[in-house]
Specification:
By secondary structure, this protein is α/β, with parallel strands linked by helices. The protein is built from 16 helices and 17 strands.
Length: 519
């Protein structure tokens, strides 16, 4: 299924080398067996010489290189892509890509990617696809094994389309949107769609079509990543079976069946919650037998051993390649840390907004009310610019991070920062009761409290941003990194404005306090 014509650089590489195991010197006729690696530069490539049992460097232009199994090891490297986080993380996708290249340099019979995935982000999956296309020194085979997700869906299917051969388990499927277990709420399904089958993937439909060689299969490849595609199977006058988008059907073509009605979701649909029935059954979904009949995959296989036999490897030695699980664990931990940090930020933002309202009310009273007590010269209205109330799309955070966002398991440091920010919460609440002649709460106390909150808030933003930059994909799709950066910049600017005001700000007392509940 691999289609390298889209990449001119790979055309040159294929013309020079192709899949390689037998090396024949063009001038002397000397022959040796081995395998080539992807370690190349300045017209030279590192290859394994089986008779000398070592790596050597040769000039590619001096050899005719052909593919066979002589000189290759009996090993088959297995690369599993089964975790739902694998293709929504840049770091994990890059690790998968590196593993493919590293495995190809070790001379296996072939590399077997075992995939069971609901989908992912197009830019990250493309990293894996390009690694497969780059691997011209070793066959890459994909096995749609089935499992928790029962197949491969959306942009994850591009990995199969890019491979040299594709096998599918009899019970597995390939489609545009993966199935979900029963009992999920519309909000959870909406989060599932945005994360694994985003509408933004429609921009990859042309890229998907270019991964398959057969013209008649390209509309199907498009429908895998674009949920809006309406796809029909037709028969033309020559009794040929074709697959076309409904709007492109010719009058001479008779519709046999509809493969996908197509569905287009608006932002409001996602916010209100989308039911699985609104999507599943309307987008492309192919069974194993249909995928083989159409030509999207090469054959069915009940096991990896069956695939090895089909490729004439009688005594295969399967070996795991890379440590994808470790990368997934690190990403999962980072995502949870980010979720906890965002929960802490949300609480501090809410408290900061409350203080902002109280400060404004006290300032208004100092400007317009009758004050019976003596007011110090520096206790004048601050006229500090207000921040726009910072809101974050918390509606779907529970589903993305996997815990109750309103009551997360915050770390001790995060809880301490929130408690420390609210140390005068009880006193500040009294300022809501404004008497006739003077405010009950000093403006100085309120501003001191706001300084503490903003200092902790900016610090938490920095921690979250550091993790989010280190682990792209760990933020919800609806919360861009730039939004957090702007929020932090806004909080920092307000903090600077308050600290320039002529008050003597008090440093917070360094002592432990019991957690403050209810905010």
């Amino acid at each position: 299924m691999k289609f390298t014509a889209l990449i001119p650089v790979l055309i040159i590489i294929l013309a020079c080398s192709g899949f390689a195991d037998t090396f024949v010197h063009r001038e002397t006729g000397d022959v040796f067996y081995g395998f080539q690696t992807q370690r190349r530069g300045q017209g030279k490539v590192v290859v394994y010489h089986s008779e000398e049992n070592k790596m050597i460097t040769i000039n590619e232009d001096e050899y005719d290189i052909t593919l066979d199994s002589r000189g290759r090891r009996e090993t088959i490297f297995r690369i599993p892509i089964r975790q739902e986080e694998a293709l929504i993380s840049k770091g994990i996708s890059e690790r998968i890509a590196e593993t493919i290249i590293e495995a190809s340099n070790r001379g296996p019979q072939f590399i077997l990617i075992e995939i069971d995935s609901p989908g992912g982000r197009g830019e990250y999956i493309r990293t894996v696809v390009e690694a497969i296309q780059q691997t011209t020194n070793c066959p890459v085979v994909t096995y749609i094994s089935g499992g928790e997700f029962s197949g491969v869906y959306s942009a994850a299917a591009l990995i199969a389309l890019a491979s040299d051969e594709v096998y599918i388990a009899p019970t597995a499927s390939i489609g545009a949107v993966g199935p979900m277990a029963e009992g999920y709420s519309p909000e959870e399904f909406s989060t599932f769609l945005r994360l694994y089958s985003s509408d933004a993937l429609a921009g990859y439909s042309g890229y998907a079509a270019g991964l398959v060689q057969r013209e008649e299969v390209r509309p199907i490849a498009r429908a895998l990543v674009d949920k809006s595609v309406s796809l029909v199977e037709v028969v033309d006058r020559d009794d040929r079976t074709l697959f076309v988008e409904r709007d492109n059907r010719q009058p001479t073509q008779t519709i046999v069946r509809t493969l996908a009605e197509g569905v287009s979701l608006s932002r409001s649909d996602y916010q209100e919650g989308v039911m699985p029935a609104d999507v599943l059954g309307r987008v492309l979904m192919l069974s194993a037998s249909d995928a083989v009949r159409i030509g999207l995959v090469d054959a069915q296989a009940a096991s990896v051993e069956e695939i090895a036999r089909a490729r004439q490897v009688e005594e295969p030695r399967f070996r795991p390649a890379g440590d994808i699980d470790a990368a997934v664990r690190r990403f999962t931990a980072a995502r949870r840390t980010i979720g906890q940090g965002l929960a802490a930020i949300a609480q501090m933002e809410e408290y900061s907004a409350t203080l902002e309202d109280q400060i404004s009310r006290v300032e208004d009273h100092l400007r317009t009310g009758t004050v019976t007590r003596e007011v110090r010269r520096n206790e004048q209205p601050s006229r500090i610019p207000r921040r726009g109330r910072v809101t974050m799309p918390q509606r779907h955070f529970d589903n993305f991070f996997g815990f109750d966002f309103d009551d997360p398991e915050l770390t001790r440091d995060q809880r301490r920062r929130i408690d420390r920010s609210a140390r005068a919460r009880g006193r500040v609440a009294e300022s809501e009761r404004i008497v006739t002649d003077q405010p009950m709460m000093s403006l100085e106390i309120l501003l001191n409290e706001q300084v503490i909150v903003l200092q902790n808030l900016v610090a938490e933003y920095r921690r979250v941003l550091t993790q989010a930059r280190r682990w792209p994909g760990a933020l919800p799709p609806e919360l861009p990194l730039r939004t957090l950066e702007r929020n932090m910049e806004s909080a920092s600017a307000q903090l600077d404005s308050i600290q320039r005001f002529p008050f003597q700000f008090q440093q917070p007392q360094q002592r432990r306090r019991a957690p403050v509940q209810g905010y």
